[in-house]
């Protein structure tokens, strides 16, 4: 959000905080023109700019401890004295000076206009002007596309920024990829007579765990220490794959699937931006090219990271799409549809496993999955059900990823599938509840008398993070209500959570169950009820000093031992 918008103060509460993004105008009262910004970019090599931006992104994305202030650190190192002095005046106002949208805009300009014949190090005053000037342009787009005092337009803003600015725990992403694409796929064949491991090996040349280990090695050069903010990190793949047991041909194949030649991406961005007014385009939000090929290969064969978050996604939750490389036309479409369905099945199985773990850790819970054959009409009842006393949670798992144009614009009217997905999930939960309460499911399968059910918590669990900040929960609930679902008083408000939220809940399930957490969340106040579940959980645990049992940490450590160590020697131990 820009620094001159006060329309959203009413949105803030103890659980959701909107931060003001400050640019050059906010610090100095003047804007840097688009032409001046391009001129500054053109003074220095593209590679120097891109390397700097990937490192800044790492500081914004990867957690470095609760006492580390990434914005203060970056300001101290990157802003010139006059800008730094002004940032300190705003230090306690919830302001930020570095954002992923700002960096994405600058990356595209650096690729188009960078001067690769000049190897001069970038001067700090030019770094300041470039970063702050780009922030103004990125902010202005949000003001151009609509008046942000209108609630639905503000929700578009939330969607755009939510998909752009989700924080990333890299260890968890790799741990989850192993859980789903190795462990769950070993239990669930992709074809009647073929395991996913066999299928993946045929298409990619590696076992899934080998690909996960290889991808981890691919991203590690871009996790920089604080002391290495300056100086090039572009490197040849052979430099950081030297200790792997995987063949060089396969390594090159994986790298090629994630990389684009510099000349090619320069042409694409020039076609997108040249001669156009940047404030009228979602430049900083549009990650289309970065998502497909998050690495850029320079003319000398070296690689540079074009977008760290896209590289992490490609290496983990989108691992399954590695099998579609080079397959096009009808065959490619059929394969993608089949993989989409299979990915959904794997995701459902993982959710069931997490529920089973919760029950093992807290005996007050009962878990059940009701298959079609256990019902009178031979249809499944929810994806997973947790029961505690006379209350139950009905989960619906949604592994769908939304299209890039929707994430770029947040246009809920044009890309209505976003809302339809949650309406469909609410309908499935209501049907499941109706079957349970009507006796269509045996009592033995439920461990509860249907007539004694006091409260049902409808929960949609997503694989990809869905932006739920700043009353998006209210917006989705209203759309579900308008569609005629979950209006019975037995239902608690619909909750949209990510699979990461479920994993985080396991860490405290010895003390608090999901049902107890949802009960507290919806009985506190409207701010708590409508807030992002992760934000509520984090604040509640901090205030009440809820102890973590270490489940997730132990699982990540086990992943390191099972997946990384077999393919790399001691440097990864």
Structure description:
This protein is an alpha/beta fold. Strands 6-7-8-9-10 form a five-stranded mixed sheet. Strands 3-4-5 form a three-stranded mixed sheet. Strands 1-2 form a two-stranded parallel ribbon. The chain has helices at residues 24-28, 34-41, 46-61, 70-78, 81-89, 100-113, 124-144, 151-164, 170-187, 196-204, 208-219, 237-240, 248-258, 262-273, 288-292, 308-315, 329-361, 404-409, 417-438, 443-446, 472-482, 499-506, 514-524, 526-530, 533-544, 551-564; strands at 20-21, 95-96, 259-261, 295-297, 303-305, 366-370, 381-388, 391-398, 455-462, 495-498. Helix content is 53%, strand content 8%. It is globular, with a radius of gyration of 24 Å.
Keyphrases for this structure?
3 domains; globular; 53% helix; 573 residues; alpha/beta; three-stranded mixed β-sheet; five-stranded mixed β-sheet; disordered N terminus
Structural class: alpha/beta
CATH class designation of the largest domain: Alpha Beta
Number of helices: 26
How can the largest sheet be summarized? 5 strands, mixed
CATH-level-2 architecture of the largest domain = 3-Layer(aba) Sandwich
Which stretches of 5+ consecutive residues score pLDDT under 50? 1-11
**CATH fold assignment of the largest domain:** Trna Endonuclease, Chain: A, domain 1
| C-alpha termini separation | 42 Å
The fraction of residues in strands falls at: 5-15%
Instruction: Give the strand line-up of the largest sheet.
Output: 6-7-8-9-10
| Gyration radius over CA | 24 Å
Percent range of helical residues: 40-55%
Mean pLDDT: 85
Q: How many individual β-strands?
A: 10
Basic shape? globular
Number of domains: 3
